[in-house]
Write a structure and sequence with these properties.
The chain folds into two domains: 285 residues, Nitrilase/N-carbamoyl-D-aminoacid amidohydrolase, CATH 3.60.110; 207 residues, Rossmann fold, CATH 3.40.50.620. The termini are far apart. 35% of the residues lie in helices and 18% in strands. By secondary structure, it is α/β, with parallel strands linked by helices. The chain is globular. The longest helix has 23 residues.
Length: 586
């Protein structure tokens, strides 16, 4: 039997394109075997409140009717057996025509037959970025599907993960159902829309291998590939058999993985036929990048840098394509963060993923060094992007005069620093409005965590590129890009001391602990759920830890107004991090 894992997606709610893809793919020719599509392929994911909007519901119901009619009358791919399993929604309505129940399901399409629902997702994740219990009704019945005399067990995404938060375990239920029906399982499938973060592919594979051994059958996992605002779906669909990864699709790209169904081979190592309830549970997905004893932040490997770069490229590209953006304007300071964002844009342009133009704007103020301009110029020359200079020092001077005349007081200190940043934000958006271009935010996760950015200033932008990378990781990614792309980022940009250049001889280290100390504290507090006291006991400086914690808390109002952040880590700011602004703290 042939397996076909369709690792693809369409824009959320683009029912016309989804119908065209399915009808064109299966309109004829030598298409046989079992075809698998990701979770909620028929609608897109995540949907959030879109599932409750009447126009969406009406269009989706009409699309399902058209798809069912096509399956019944026109689905004739070949003379060989062919079936399609695809993720979608199933609605039930009350007497007023309002949705009374929504289920996340697997639909079966067979030649000459109407579309039908054969399985409902049982475990609805309700943590981090997930809130499926708000919208969906969980299933409770395990299901198998018969095809080509094969017995195929059905799971959807979260169903494969053990958790103490869930009252049931669908994998255990499936095993009991198979044994109770005296059926031998020939294949387990999992239709997924599993968001990306560093290290997640290993967790998926380990769990799939475990389930494969537990049910003595190959395991096929098909995943969505896309960027939906801040969430990245990395694809990497795969098939495992016992202790072996038989095949894997590409990362961050559309792909169709086609192979013959493996015959299950018992691993050489004796297996106890028990699921591990801790090592491969959903909780392992949220492990941090800290070394356990010294609480240091693990460096990114070359492979991880490449993976992060590909994820960011997909995030920017999909956001731009889906929102009809082909022009980018970058506020280039000569510092590390904006230089890295500009370099990544150039890489996207070189890959020719979509038509695009890039411009860089350098906005020097009173405290901007000549070195900053020289480095910005060198970077733009290296990558072939025009650099435009738009000084703010004269506007800044005018504002200081107006302020003094109005309030009989000097504009000084932090207020004076912030107005410079806000001037740059206003001017870069003036250019954006005039050109119809997109401004990318260049703040990193360290800055976002402690509020080391100016609201309505350097915090502006439609999408945050580096907001899930600590400053130390920004440097690592920049060095990796230089090894791969002929040192396009001038070395002095990477090696110079970070500075906002908003006052004389300013350096980040005057306001914050050095990043090699700051970033591990942030990761411990944000991802590892360490307390202040935990970190002090581990040997971190008491005053430093308390200061960082207080900065995190005081900066909540800034993050609440921040743009979407491309999610690269298990725990990120943004949609999956929602904390009250007003609360009692240390």
């Amino acid at each position: 039997m042939q397996l076909n894992l369709h690792q693809t997606h369409h824009e959320i709610g683009d029912f016309e394109a989804i119908f065209k893809y399915l009808s064109t793919t299966f309109q004829g020719g030598n298409l046989s075997g079992l075809h698998l599509f990701p979770e909620l392929f028929l609608t897109g994911y995540p949907l959030m409140d879109l599932v409750l909007q009447k126009s969406f519901i009406d269009d989706y119901q009409a699309f399902l009717s058209d798809l069912s009619l096509w399956s019944e009358r026109q689905f004739k791919p070949s003379n060989d057996a062919c079936s399609v399993l695809v993720g979608g929604l199933s609605y039930q309505f009350d007497t007023f025509g309002l949705p009374s129940q929504i289920e996340n399901v697997i639909y079966l399409l067979e030649p000459g037959k109407k579309i039908r629902n054969i399985y409902t997702k049982q475990l609805l994740p309700n943590y981090d970025i997930y809130e499926e219990k708000k919208y969906f009704t969980a299933g409770s019945i395990p299901a198998v599907f018969k095809f080509n005399d094969k017995t195929i067990g059905l799971l959807i995404c979260e169903d494969m993960w053990f958790s103490h938060l869930h009252e049931i375990d669908p994998v255990e239920q499936l095993k009991d159902h198979l044994e109770g029906s005296k059926l031998k399982c020939d294949l387990i499938i999992n239709l997924s829309a599993s968001p990306y973060h560093l290290g997640k592919i290993d967790s998926r594979i380990n769990r799939a291998l475990e389930i494969s051994q537990y049910l003595s059958a190959p395991f096929a996992y098909v995943n969505r590939v896309a960027a939906e605002d801040e969430i990245i779906f990395d694809g990497r669909s795969f098939v495992v058999d016992g202790s072996t990864v038989v095949a894997m699709a590409q990362a961050f790209k559309n792909d169709v993985l086609t192979l013959k169904l493996p015959t299950y081979t018992q691993p050489a190592k004796e297996f106890t036929r028990k699921l591990n309830t801790t090592a491969n549970s959903w909780g392992t997905i949220f492990s941090s990048r800290l070394t356990p004893d010294t609480i240091k932040l693990s460096s990114l490997t070359e492979n991880e840098c490449e993976e992060v770069l590909d994820a960011i490229i997909l995030g920017i590209s999909d956001y731009a394509i889906k929102n009809n953006i082909n022009k980018f304007t970058i506020a280039l300071s000569g510092g590390m963060d904006s230089s890295l964002v500009l370099a990544i844009l150039k890489i996207i342009k070189n890959r020719d993923l979509f038509p695009m133009t890039i411009e860089a704007v350098f906005m020097p103020g009173l405290f901007s060094s000549s070195l900053s301009y020289d480095l910005a110029y060198d970077l733009c020359r290296n990558i072939g992007v025009k650099l435009t200079t738009m000084p703010i020092k004269f506007i800044h001077s005018t504002i200081k005069t107006v302020y003094k005349d109005s309030f009989q007081a000097e504009l000084a200190g932090l207020a004076d620093e912030n107005i410079q940043s806000r001037l740059r934000g206003a001017l870069i958006y003036a250019r954006s409005n005039a050109m119809g271009s997109m401004v990318l935010n260049t703040s990193n996760k360290s800055e976002l965590a402690v509020g080391y950015s100016t609201i309505y200033g350097d915090s502006v932008g439609a999408l945050s590129v580096l907001g899930d990378l600590y400053k130390s990781e920004v440097f690592e990614l920049a060095r990796f890009i230089n090894t791969q792309y002929f040192n396009i980022i001038p070395e002095e940009i990477i090696s110079r001391a970070p500075s906002a250049e908003l006052r004389e001889n300013q350096e980040d280290s005057q306001s914050l602990p050095p990043y090699d100390r700051l970033d591990p504290i942030l990761e411990a507090l944000l991802s590892q759920r360490f307390s202040v006291q935990d970190l002090i006991k581990k040997g971190h400086n008491k005053d430093e830890v308390i200061k960082v914690y207080q900065l995190i808390v005081k900066s909540e109002y800034k993050r609440a107004q921040f743009c979407p952040i491309i999610k690269l880590k298990a725990k990120s700011f943004g949609f999956g991090y929602r904390v009250p602004i007003s609360k009692k703290t240390l």
